[in-house]
Amino acid sequence: QGYTGFVYGGGLWAKHIHDGIARRLHDGGFASLSEAVGSATGKREAPSG
After folding, report:
1. Residue 34: what pLDDT?
2. Where are the domains of the chain?
3. For an engineered disulfide with 13, which of 9, 30, 31, 49 has Cβ 3.0 to 4.6 Å away?
4. Could you tell me the CA-to-CA distances from 32 to 10, 26, 38, 43 in Å, in that order?
């Protein structure tokens, strides 16, 4: 997929992907990708015992 993106999108395909991810993170109120990972799941307590 990366090769196809490079062939059809040119050398800036990776920058376009990065910019899109960065924009979505910013729009979602996240400071970093690691902050966003798992944010759609509910907070769960650790099992006891």
Report:
1. 92
2. 2-27
3. 9
4. 27, 8, 12, 19
CA distance 28 to 39: 10
- Find the mean pLDDT for residues 11-34: 92
Q: What is the identity of the amino acid at 41?
A: T
**One-letter identity of residue 38:** G
Q: pTM of the entire structure?
A: 0.63
Asked if 1 and 9 count as a contact pair (C-beta separation under 8 A), the reply is no
- Alpha carbon of 4 to those of 1, 13, 14, 20, 21: distances in Å? 5, 10, 12, 18, 19
CA–CA gap between residue 34 and residue 14 (Å, rounded): 19
